[in-house]
Amino acid sequence: MKGKIIFLIGLILVSAVFAQQVQVGTVGVNPVGVYDGCSGKRIGLVGASNTVDMDAQGNKVPSSWNNVNIIKVMCPGATVFLHAKGGTWPGAQVSLVQAAIQNDNLDYMILDPSANGQQASSGITSEGYKAAAINLAQIVKNKNKDIKL
């Protein structure tokens, strides 16, 4: 239980940090700053429709909206390994996380799970959703405890 609480607090803190780095009221995302020390860093990015670089019709989204591009702009010199599939909740993203951690020596893993599965019609309880999200983080830590989530 303590580990789950620490994970959730960390997730909230990371979200707060990223929220502070985005200009409010813009269409898409405009990074405010560039972070030094990114050169050579290896970042795994696992997500869903909020992460993929195509819309539901398969059209490329504007590059300013692409999460991989945003990371590369804010963190120049980093390599990003994207594994994302739209419409999947954390319980269906295990294979994406497993694919991402196959990249050796990841420094960071960003888990950007879909909000799908949180609505009552999905049949997934909030506890089940949380457990699935925590499981994704645990898979990463089981691979290499030094990867920062």
How would you sum up this structure, described in words?
The protein has 149 residues and is α/β, with parallel strands linked by helices. The chain has a single domain (35-143), classed as Rossmann fold, CATH 3.40.50.1110. 35% of the residues lie in helices and 11% in strands. The chain has a three-stranded parallel beta sheet, sandwiched between helices. The protein is globular, with a radius of gyration of 15 Å. The two termini are 18 Å apart.
Give a short synopsis of this structure.
This protein is an alpha/beta fold and 149 residues long.
What distinguishing features does this structure have?
149 residues; alpha/beta; Rossmann fold; 3 strands; 35% helix; globular
Share of residues in strands: 5-15%
**CATH class identity:** Alpha Beta
- Largest beta sheet: what is the strand line-up? 2-1-3
pLDDT < 50 runs, ≥5 residues: 7-31
- Estimate the global geometry from the Cα principal axes: globular
Compressed to H and E, one letter per element, the order equals: HEHEHEH
Give the number of domains: 1
* Assembly of the depicted chains: single chain
- Which structural class best describes the helix and strand composition? alpha/beta
Largest sheet: 3 strands, parallel
Q: N-to-C terminal Cα separation, in Å? A: 18 Å
Radius of gyration: 15 Å
Using the 3D structure, state the CATH architecture. Answer: 3-Layer(aba) Sandwich
CATH topology: Rossmann fold
CATH H-level superfamily = SGNH hydrolase
**Helix content percent band:** 25-40%
Number of DSSP-assigned strands: 3
Overall residue-averaged pLDDT value: 75
Number of helices: 4
